[in-house]
Amino acid sequence: MSRSPSSPAGPSQRVLRVGELIRRNLSEILAQGGLHDPDLDGVPITVGEVRVSADLRVATAYVLPLGGANRDGILAALRRSKPEIRHQIGRGLTLRHVPDLRFEIDETFDRIEATRRMFADERVRRDIDAAPSETRPSDESGDAAE
User: What is the phi/psi pair of residue 105, to 5°?
Assistant: First the structure.
């Protein structure tokens, strides 16, 4: 019995393992600074995650320059350098074919900060503080919790 590539269980262990290997190799390549694009020279870039398609043909790297500055410029430079990066990653993998690389800005830190700001809002704090007493279920004896 074969599993469909889009199974609801999520990515396979192999897909996750390949994504992590690509992430590590990409991080090393960017940290070494050996790329021939001057826009990437000396710019620390965080590789938060690499998601690989089920067929291992496409790998999307979620990256963020340190401090979040010049996101669009860094993204454009990475896309220009894709053939060179892909070649270097291929040397560190034992796959028959190196996945096509795509680069996207990692929005995780922005979402975390937006969530923090939301929870710091006085109206949200008031609702959070009030919620437990309103949603507390009654106990077995029939007395309502107050």
Answer: -75, 135
Cross-strand bridge partners of residue 64: 46
Rounded CA-CA distance 106/41 in Å is 20
Sign of the dihedral defined by the CA atoms of residues 133, 136, 139, 142, in that order: positive
- The CA radius of gyration of the chain, in Å to the nearest whole number, is 22
Output the furthest CA–CA distance in the chain (Å, rounded): 74
CATH superfamily assigned to domain 13-107:
K homology (KH) domain (3.30.300.20)
Q: pTM for the full model?
A: 0.70
- Enter the tokens of residue 67: 């401090």
Q: Residue length, the chain?
A: 146
| Per-residue pLDDT at 107 | 82
